[in-house]
Design a protein that fits this description.
The complex is a heterodimer of chains A (about 375) and B (about 800). Chain A has about 375 residues and is an alpha+beta fold. Chain A is built from 14 helices and nine strands. In chain B, the strands form eleven sheets. Chain B has a seven-stranded mixed sheet, with helices on both faces. In chain B, strands 3, 4, 5, 6, 11 and 12 form a six-stranded antiparallel sheet that branches. In chain B, strands 14, 16, 17, 24, 25 and 26 form a six-stranded mixed sheet that branches. The chains are: A alpha+beta (about 375), B alpha+beta (about 800).
Chain lengths: ~375, ~800
Amino acid sequence: MTNFRALTRRRAAAYNFVPTIVLQNAIVSQPSVESPSAASIATLTNQALKELDAVSDPDGAEQWRVSYLGRRGQITGVLRSIPQLDPDQRREVGAQANQAKNALEEALARRIRELAEAELAAAGALDVTLPGRPVITGRLHPTTQIVREICGAFIAMGFSVVEGPEVELDHYNFEMLNIPAGHPARDMWNSLWVDYVNEEGQQPMLLRTHTSPMQARVMEAQDPPVRVIVPGKCYRYEATDATHEWHFYQIEGLAVAEGITFANLKGTLYEFARRVFGPDRQIRFRCDYFPFVEPGVDMSISNFVDPATGKRPINRDEDWIEIMGAGMVHPRVLEGVGYDPQRYTGFAFGMGPERIGMLKYGIDDIRHFYRNDVRFLRQF
Amino acid sequence: MLIPLSWLSEYVDITLPPDELAHRLTMGGIEVGDVITRGGWDGCVVGYVRATRPHPNADTLTLCEVDPGDGPPLEVVCGAPNVAAGQKICFARPGVTLLNMHTGRREELKPARIRGVVSEGMICSEAELEISDEHEGIIVLPDDAVVGAALDDVLGDTFLELELTPNRGDCLSMLGVAREIGALTGQQVRVPEIAYAESAAPVSELAKVSIADPDLCLRYTASVITGITIGQSPHWLQDRLIRAGLRPINNVVDVTNYVMLEFNQPLHAFDLDTVTDRHVVVRRATAGEKFTTLDEVERTLNSDNLLIADPAQAIGIGGVMGGANSEITPATKNMLLESATFHNLNNRRTATELNLRTEASLRFEKGLRPELAPIALRRATLLILETAGGVAAGGIIDVFPAGDEPVTPVPLTVARLRQLLGMDLDIARAESVLGSLGITTRRTGPDSLEADPPYWRSDIAIEEDLIEEVVRIIGYDEVPTTMLSSPIPYHQGNEMTALKDELRDALTAAGMQETISYPLVGPDDLARLNRDGHEAKPLLRVANPMSAEQDVLRPTLAASILNTLAYNQGHNDGGFRLFELGRAFIPQDSGLMRNLLPVERELVAGVMSGPRYDANWLSGSDSLDFFDLTGTLTTSLERMGVTTLYQSADDPLFHPGRCASIAVAGAQPVDVGTVGELHPDIRDAFDLGTDPVIYFELRLDDLLTAARGEENAENRFQSLSRFPAANRDLALVVPENVPASQVQRLIERVRLVERAELFDVYSGENVPEGTRSLAFRIRFRAPDRTLTNEDVNRAVNGLTRVLEREAGATIRG
């Protein structure tokens, strides 16, 4: 059975030839019975269009075409009779007859398209609201996502990513960071020690309590300038609660060269804060203490109520939120790795990506991160 | 550390509201964790109990006649056992809002009939005023309290709760905090008087001190006071100690505590008459020496513990706690007051070993300056004379072995300030800030000075310390914000980090969810994995684990990820596809090299189990199986440019016959890991349900080696043929023991074969016993021409011969 889709395609090709054929025929045709006039062409056109509206299937469309536009069709007849008219009428009526023919051809094409569309719609409508065919995708752990975002901000500022051991020597975790054995500052890092005793009866290995030991390791391995960022796992002997985990990530940053200043530290961290927390972010520093930096500071980001929304950008009822420790690398740390502290200066900083993720996404309990409930993991 | 502003204001004028003050201190490095206000007892006054009589209807209640100061006496019912006539008390009239001890809420006090007597008010305990939980007795105010005075003026106060960093031990004292506030607010600090009247008899005639171990006791100063009277301290002294959180004991001990809180120097008072020969000897303990401290506990000491002794016996543990044998008692008449400087780390070790972290050791361990000792000694002697009477001997004992060495001044230059901070600060500004902190400075040039570390600070030793002092007081906002301008250093890219990132992306894209878990596992976890109970490899353990279930550094990721799967099966429906990138820890103690860190092997492990899809209308819900995981791995690694080969393998972790080694294809295939269906015993040991559990583990160092080789060998552009391909389907009957991958390799090795895809595997009817049918769709293509039918036929014939010869395969009819 012919359908309208097939018809449209066929017609589209055929009509290109029709006018030529008609005109050739016109030259050799017989004279017509009646003389056409402007009025009769208009009447004929209206009648044809009315009939076309009633056409509802391919056969009807073909009949209509034969009846008006076929070799013996009525419009064709009008065109054939034009040479018999008075020369002064010929131009006017001829033009009108050609217009009528074009109009009817267009109307037919349009009607066939309409009918073809209706036919498609009737035949194969889908319930487009049915669920699509399942494709399974996974997601990166939220910590991975945040670590990447943070590292990305620093990579854009010329930092390179390095990683280090999670089981670390006391030497790097503390001693090289200006935290000698027995120093009260060690209370700041409760450690998980590895059950290994060396020949001197010491227990020299622990799960690193911060990523800072990589400061010493990186500087020992290369000459200045240094500009690195160190993401990685850290561990503390600490009871867990909504804001404390014994296992967490840290991201350490270190830049050492001639001429690096605290002003550079501010600039770098300001840029970081804008990239990660948005362009309107302000930062603030307060004095804090870490034995491996001097001066040592703590950085906060602004969280003022936005007058436009009446809300704070971070859902915490504080104007300033502390997000990391930082400072100028302590001269004793530089001396320890063989850098001349009078010539080289540098800054270091460290932050917890989980805390930053909690602030960004409004996560209320750090313990969600490593419980790995997929209902949590799939939210990010 | 709790700082009552009422006490603090004796040393510095407080010109800021408490919250603003707290903020300024915090920004300067003295973090105020909380500002606590005590008071707000509107309508409560100092009352006077004129008389008491028993309640007619209750033995435990007392009727009190209370003078409120501004009207006729009122009758008040009181249940406290300590109420008595003549007391000044905290009186609450009806209408006042107070904590109702019965409801736990703040409520308006109403006149109440108690056992038939109307009480016209209440005498308050600390609990009702929300000072403490103490509800046993009422508060008895000092006799000098003015009847009718507002209670807020008598008992009210504001406290700063400090959260100090270890370097700022100086702020464990009122004067330390006062100096900080002085610098931050431009106020003068008032240091208390320390001079007192000394008797003509020199102290050297009354007592003697020797330091046997000057490495542990840097300075020992002492005064002697004779003829004292032990008793209660005056009210003002008791009140201040209580507000700061200490318990008053007697006038002498209270003064030592008071001066400790005032100047930060711990002091100790000995009953001089109990000290043999009146001779104090500071010496190391002998190993195993026993000593009973003030708290009546007998302690066993080692030879690194420092003792205060006399020629006969120990009388105190230096800087930690005194002894019961020499303590001040009500009968004490003559005393020796100690103000010494002990070695901070040794003091800290002793206190830690003895589990005796006292107020004294808390201060000594941070390091006190020897210059402080005589100042605090004189201050305390003065106050003891005021509160306990007696006569102070002439002069003080001062044993200071290193006393001749001058204190090194610390330099500061404008150039270094600029080099470190990136800002221009003139020397006068620095001078003025340091001066405001009480630090003495001298100009050493037009743009430089030197500073004497003040006797109350032990954290100022180098130029950078002075720079921090300057910048923390002027504030970090004044430092400009500039970008790094030094050249970006070259760092070799870290291949392992890059590989891990690529793998994460590839696996998540292939449907796997990333997880991250603790690297500590328990012995039970490892036992569950060890089906045969064969001897475990050496493990790395934690000496002080948080719990027994987490005491081993994991040698494999299997336990972690199986536990993660079990947790999720318990909380969620559906199939799971989980992976983790993490480290396994392998000890490498050769016995020859000391302190060798374990190998931290980067691994990726993953697990699949449960229905392949959630219930849906388009696909079935078969269980995820072996081929889901190998397909995922093949695709993921292919994306990274690595072709994987699977070979049947044996591993007790897995179901027999359902385990494969994973290798990376190449000139030399590199083994990189294992994949398989978990052995049902292990699945059940981890309680993982009844569906198959498919697990894999890849070693990233091996994968990196393999991937590196692959890149060099094969990562070359291959031109695309312009000519069409021809497809042929071929069903082969192959002996069962021939792996499909071998057949596929044979096919793909034949000339003109572009690719072969296995689309059907069948055994059973119409296929001879011991064989199976493998159907391949084979695509032929030539790089330089369109293949003819004959070309393809010839290729298929060639293929058939090769397959017959190499694999015993025949074309299925």
